[in-house]
């Protein structure tokens, strides 16, 4: 067999890899395309925050590998996950990397795509509903509104080790001047700093919604204002995974929960 024939044989036996967004938690929020990919997978590498009910769509013969990655906890090393993906593809498997939310919004999907492409593996991506959108929607409010918010910024509150992280002061000034909603992921551990820095550009009474386990039956939430963000976390015991929504669109949440007696219990704090 010559070199070209060897390469053709190798290509013919190579499997596939797809990054699939499992959504914010509620399995009913999966896209049809995601369900089809999960059903077709022979190997699934599953993140920690993916709802187990999502795996009911998997084939009974599929190999399911849990590769937990949760902020603030011991996680499977990223390099090891990428090695598992590459090895499985080289073994001819149909690989689905199942990630919470959307693979390309703070899911390290970009890193995985780059790494696999570097070794000659084509990667497909199926989007999922990101928890930042699901969180505010669960409270009946929008992320943008012609009267209150002309845009939205998705930002992480957890910087990579050695990275200076988000310039919260600059972001606060931009959000104020451009009427932007801030959607902050992984911000619980850094809430005190985030509050202090955002207050340099945003008013103390800027509305904030905190949503824990967005879209799940055990979701909890609280409304507060920016000057009491850290205190509200302490009083309610809200923990990760939580989303912070900062901006005037959150006022719609307060209006809804004050007038709708059928709405779920929502603690109100700090003169909202």
What would you say this structure looks like, in words?
It is elongated and about 60 Å long. It has 2 domains: about 5-130, Tetrapyrrole methylase, N-terminal domain (Cobalt-precorrin-4 Transmethylase, domain 1); about 130-260, Methyltransferase, Cobalt-precorrin-4 Transmethylase, Domain 2. Residues about 5-10, about 260-265 and about 265-270 have low confidence and may be disordered. The chain has about 270 residues and is α/β, with parallel strands linked by helices. Helices cover about 30% and strands about 20% of the residues. It is built from 9 helices and 10 strands.
* Outline: elongated
* Share of helix, binned: 25-40%
In sequence order, what are the helices and strands, one letter per element? HEHEEHEHEHEHEHEEHEH
**pLDDT under 50 segments (min length 5)?**
3-10, 260-265, 267-272
Per-chain topology:
Elements: H1 3-13, E1 16-21, H2 32-40, E2 43-46, E3 63-66, H3 78-90, E4 94-99, H4 109-118, E5 123-126, H5 131-137, E6 151-156, H6 168-178, E7 180-185, H7 191-198, E8 207-212, E9 220-225, H8 229-236, E10 242-246, H9 251-259
Parallel strand pairs: 1-4, 1-5, 2-3, 2-4, 6-7
Antiparallel strand pairs: 7-10, 8-9, 8-10
